[in-house]
Amino acid sequence: MRFLLKYKRFLGIIVAIVLLYLSFHDIDRDRISDILSHTNFWYLIPATTVAFLMNMCKALRWRVIMDPVTKLSFRKIYSIYSVGQMINVSLPALTGQAARVLVLSKQAKLPKTYCATTIIIEVLFDGVSLLMIMLAGSTFVVFPGWVARSGILAGAVLVTLAISLLLIVHNRRKLRIYGRRRLKLRFPKLFEKIRHVSKSFVDALDIFTSLKHSSMTAFYSLLLWTSHALVMVFTILMFGIDMPIWGALVILVVNSVLLMFPITPGNLGTFQWACIASMALFNVDKSSALSFSIILHMLDMVPVFVAGLIFLYLDHLRFSELREESLKESERSSGESVKEEEIAVEGE
User: Fold this and answer.
1) Is the dihedral of CA 75, 78, 84, 89 positive or negative?
2) Which stretches of the chain are DSSP H helices?
3) Reduced to 3 states, what is the DSSP secondary structure of residue 95?
4) 42: which DSSP letter?
5) Whole-angstrom distance, CA of residue 40 vs CA of residue 240
6) With contact defined as beta carbons under 8 Å apart, do 90 and 117 qualify?
7) Which residues contact 45 (CB under 8 A, 6 or more apart)?
8) At what angle do helices 188-204 and 112-137 cross, to 10 degrees?
9) Engineered SS bond to 47: which of 8, 156, 234, 303, CB 3.0-4.6 Å?
10) Alpha-carbon dihedral 156, 276, 250, 306, rounded to 10 degrees
């Protein structure tokens, strides 16, 4: 684990270079010039507008998830989300959402365990929404076998996660009693660690006890994926790509499956390769798919960086300091996982 943490930056760069090479190495330059000459860049206006609204919607959903525990203004949560995401994009691969957890914890004075749990809840709702879109898309096109299998696997994982979280919420009192009776005697150090973080973890799960908050989170999740598909539709129209509009849902599903595990900073390389692979299902040539991927990637990144830079200035935050703290936090969290395993072994 520590070896991986030490060299993950170089691993991500190497993977990005390889995938960028695979994406660019046999591109027809004349074909690219022809594509650009026929591109209607006016579609960038609605595409960029929807992309900004989509990120605002993500911030609103995050606020709903935290609403049972803490009340944050839209301005504050949008600031935290934008700055955190901007820093996350700049971090090495496999560091997850360390920056967003750190910024939320510092700005809202919340425990890091609670902050991390809210992001797990986001992932759960995103996954369920994506599966629903995948089922809808399967009525139009037959997904490749590996995509269907990945969807089934993801569904199984999500169902397991959802059931586990619901059981924790329902049996929180019994779990506390069990912890005191069993863990405290056998693994006292591990028990103290669990006791310290368990309250924050369970507090974040209070959203599942509120039909209103759960419904609003589900609504925002579906709205987010629909907005993402709409950005793709505008980009398809921009390049005049010969494919059905509903194909945006298929591209969305395939891209999401391929980008499920971020292995390069900002998904550089993996994003381009994923777009080329998904658009090949509609017999879109590689040059058109690559052009599409570059613009779409920009539409994903620009709203985050523009809003992030604005809030860094308005809130008097320093990018370099937050980035360094996020790296340390990521390594510290991984180090603590290793220590907990060692504590359990010592207790036995």
Assistant:
1) negative
2) 2-24, 29-37, 44-66, 74-90, 98-108, 112-137, 145-170, 172-178, 184-186, 188-204, 211-239, 247-258, 270-279, 286-314, 319-347
3) coil
4) G
5) 8
6) no
7) none
8) 60
9) 234
10) 90
CB 144 within 8 A of CB 281: yes
Report d(CA 314, CA 294) in Å as an integer: 30
Convert the pLDDT of each residue in 87-140 to its tens digit.
888 776 656 678 888 889 888 888 888 888 898 888 888 888 888 777 776 776
Q: Are 190 and 347 in contact, with CB atoms under 8 Å apart?
A: yes
Give the integer Cα–Cα distance in Å for 221 and 128: 9
Q: Are 276 and 258 within 8 A, CB to CB?
A: no
Query: pLDDT (tens digit, 9 = 90+) per residue, 172-185?
Result: 666 566 556 565 55
Half-sphere exposure of 53 (CA within 13 A, CB side): 15
Question: For the chain, how many structural domains are there in total?
Answer: 1
| Integer CA distances (angstroms), 52 to 74, 78, 101, 296, 300, in order | 14, 11, 22, 13, 9
Of 98, 62, 104, 73, residue with least CA distance to 317: 104
d(CA 112, CA 253): 31
Question: Locate tokens 């973080």: which residue?
Answer: 197
Q: Which range of residues forms the domain containing residue 342? A: 2-347
Q: DSSP string covering 190-250, please? A: HHHHHHHHHHHHHHHGGGGG-HHHHHHHHHHHHHHHHHHHHHHHHHHHHHT-SS-TTHHHH
Q: d(Cα 99, Cα 89) in Å, to the nearest integer?
A: 9
The model's pLDDT over 337-348, given as tens digits with 9 standing for 90+, comes to: 434 333 333 444
Give the residue carrying structure tokens 């700049």. 90
CA 268 to chain centre: 15
Identity of residue 201: F
Write the CB contacts of 196 (distance below 8 Å, at least 6 apart in sequence). none
